[in-house]
Amino acid sequence: MNLSRGHRAHHYVTQWVAQNIARPGRVRFLISSSGLTRIRSRSTVPATAADNQGGISTGQSGVLMTVSGISVAGAVGAYSLTPTLTKVAPTIVSSNLALPSAAVLSSASAPQSAFTLTPITSVTQNVIYSRPAVLNSDRLAWATPPADDISQMLEAGLKAHSESTSLLGGLGAQLLDRFATTQSDFRQAVVTYRDPAANGADDTNAAAGASALQNAQYIQNSVSLSVYTVSGKEVDIAITFGGDGHSIQDSLSIAVHSSGVLSAAEQTAIAKLSKGFDAALQGIAGSSAKVDVSGLVNYDTTVLSGVDLNVLDAPQMSGPQSLNFHADASRRSFSMQGQAGTVAVSVDLSSPAQWGSPAQQQTSVLGYLDQFDSANQRAHGDATLLGQFKDAFAQLNSSYPAPGQQPAPALSASALSAKDRSVLTGLADFQASMSGDFNNGSATHVTTEAGHIDYEISQATETRGVAKRTGLSVVQTQASTLSASFAASRNGEMLDIARGDYDIHTFKDSASTSTSFEYADDKLQNAVSINRMNQSEIDEKLVNHKIVDRKSTPHSVFTMQDISAQLRPTL
After folding, report:
1. At what angle do helices 358-379 and 383-396 cross, to 10 degrees?
2. What is the pLDDT of residues 128-149, one digit of tens each?
3. What contacts 246, CB < 8 A, 6 or more positions away?
4. How far apart are CA 401 and CA 399, in angstroms?
5. Interval 413-426: pLDDT, tens
6. Phi and psi, residue 361, nearest 5°
7. What pTM did the predictor assign?
8. Are 174 and 218 in contact (CB under 8 A)?
9. DSSP secondary-structure letter at 178?
10. Which pLDDT tens digit goes with each residue over 352-389?
11. Inter-residue contact 168 to 241 (CB < 8 Å)
12. What does the alpha-carbon distance between residue 299 and residue 304 come to, in Å, rounded to a whole number?
């Protein structure tokens, strides 16, 4: 294409002519020595060097444009291009740019579309045309005027969410941080809605906004945080978010309420939960499958008595479909259901006498996490579900409250020595489980395995007596079970259950470790550790839906060890 003096014409104009050759309508553009410029609402778009495709050449006094056998010539000035469907003889317009008042645009085949370039007088680069009607425009509706920092964050959250970042980013921190300076109740709601009558009257738009706000009350995505004080007060924060799949594109609604006047210490303790609440919200509304509640377990137990976090989430969201978290001085619990499956962890904090040092606790947590890895690897389970299970277990078994905050325990912390605790795990008793379906694939993203895993693990500690002098016995048992099965294709091919040619692997495992010791008259009577493990693996080969080969692999282990030497005083 030949361009004189470096002039360029915008490619989308040529596309418009080519795509609308047989469509009645009108387009306005300018012909100047700088090239072809289409006039849009409130602005003009100059030609760019990147768009020199379509056979456009410019001259000193005008423009000649050729698109797929179509040519147009005109003088420097402004024109409206009006197509009409007519049958005309094939015509090639001369490239003579000697200031004609009009030019004909034609193609080389009949029927033809005749285009008339009609000069427009008194047109400048700053001509403003009325904006064309735009249907299904997104609008913003507020429950109350957005005149505060939180409202600004709500609007920023909606904008950020349209760019695939977390809708609730920073909101949790701001909602709790405000308690450092104020404790008044607060409510606000904002909705991004699609108005089919975007150019309607103001009263019509207002009615549509009010309707969107009303419908947003039924959005099912919700988060609620409740904080309880030792003095008996309660602070509640409720958040709803998301769209309805119809007119409501997105929404954010918050309500903050306190049941009574908070003391300065209570305000400070609640504000310190801000980072923990915000971290939890990131996993709930963000794209990651990880949910972090570690910042909600470590609160000031001298001022606050407990925390509850509850989530009800729609299945299409990337975060959990439901989540329930509770923490107080005597117990912690976490349950979550998501796309990968279900996770549940419950920790009993009522017996601090058995807790070890932070270093011992960390070592025991890491040991349990290794057990989870081994069980999941044996069953070929889902990595996402395993990660959620490990996160929940580690978070709930961190930062135990200081002894003395729990109800009076049956066994005082001084009843056991450091050596006694050394043969225990040092952790609080717990119950934990994960369950879910899984699909595994090859490097080519072909599904080669599909199955289900159920895994449970627990720790329970039983004590009898309250002192070594009068008689004291401790029995701590850790137990786990694995039940899983999966179907697998052969030779890395895609798994096709309907064909009936695949393998089935089934696992039934159980394991337990029991550690016990007994004292009487301040003397160690006995101490023993017993380990039991039973594993069963059944492998079946199916051909045309019939089992043609079956192999069973049982494995059992039993050990008993005297651990008295670990408890007796060193001489």
Report:
1. 160
2. 444 444 444 578 889 889 989 9
3. none
4. 6
5. 788 999 999 999 99
6. -60, -45
7. 0.73
8. no
9. G
10. 999 999 999 999 999 999 999 999 999 999 999 999 99
11. yes
12. 7
